[in-house]
């Protein structure tokens, strides 16, 4: 299956100069660097990006849950691709990626595990929508300085065609050059507001280049 994407979105943001219309709740912060505490009582690790980025780090008395919310996006009758970079190396914080239609939230992905590398590229399929919607990055369990999540380089692309293929591996062609992304491999149930396995089975068969 091939999704051909062409239209960039007004929510695209590298956070280099400002929030590009995104709204943030404390402790989300626009910064060009942050320090990650060492679990081994060694010197803190300096986290930097290409330029500025958004980061949420807990501290004593901080909000345990905070949202980073995109500008409003028009309804789309076709699938879209959401791409972003994130860092989560230590701590117990969780990152949920959701779409918000009015007062209704639909979960696209939940990231709970820590990684040994910085700035992992994540790519998710956004379903069709009947109403204007927003992308929400929700950081939760921000309880200590070890609980850190960072976000950068957010892009949303709308598909223009959907072609069925029997090939085991297919390719997604983008008009804008986007580096290789990680894809979600485990299916998500329709239960509890999550997107169904149909969307995720599509994503399993996509190779971005």
UniProtKB/TrEMBL annotation:
Q: Which PROSITE patterns does this entry report, sorted A to Z?
A: MAM_2
- Alphabetical list of Pfam families matching this protein: MAM
One cellular component (GO) term of this entry: membrane
Q: Which residues form the MAM domain?
A: 11-156
What Gene3D superfamilies has UniProt attached to this entry? Answer: 2.60.120.200
Could you tell me what this protein is called? MAM domain protein
Native species: Dictyocaulus viviparus
**Organism lineage string:** Eukaryota, Metazoa, Ecdysozoa, Nematoda, Chromadorea
């Amino acid at each position: 299956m091939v999704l051909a994407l062409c239209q960039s979105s007004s929510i695209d943001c590298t956070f280099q100069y400002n929030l590009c219309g995104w709204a943030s709740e404390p402790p989300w912060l626009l910064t060009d660097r942050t320090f990650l505490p060492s679990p081994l009582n060694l010197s803190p690790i300096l986290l930097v990006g290409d330029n500025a980025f958004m980061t949420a780090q807990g501290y004593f008395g901080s909000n345990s849950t905070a949202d980073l919310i995109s500008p409003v996006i028009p309804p789309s009758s076709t699938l879209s691709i959401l791409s972003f970079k994130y860092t989560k190396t230590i701590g117990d914080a969780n990152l949920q990626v959701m779409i918000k239609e009015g007062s209704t939230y639909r979960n696209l992905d939940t990231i709970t595990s820590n990684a040994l590398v910085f700035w992992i590229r994540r790519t998710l399929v956004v379903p069709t929508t009947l109403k204007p919607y927003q992308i929400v990055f929700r950081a939760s369990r921000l309880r200590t300085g070890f609980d850190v999540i960072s976000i950068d380089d957010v892009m949303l692309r709308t598909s223009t065609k959907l072609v069925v293929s029997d090939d085991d591996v297919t390719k997604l062609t983008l008009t804008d050059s986007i580096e290789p992304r990680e894809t979600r491999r485990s299916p998500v149930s329709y239960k509890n507001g999550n997107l169904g396995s149909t969307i995720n089975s599509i994503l399993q068969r996509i190779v971005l280049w």
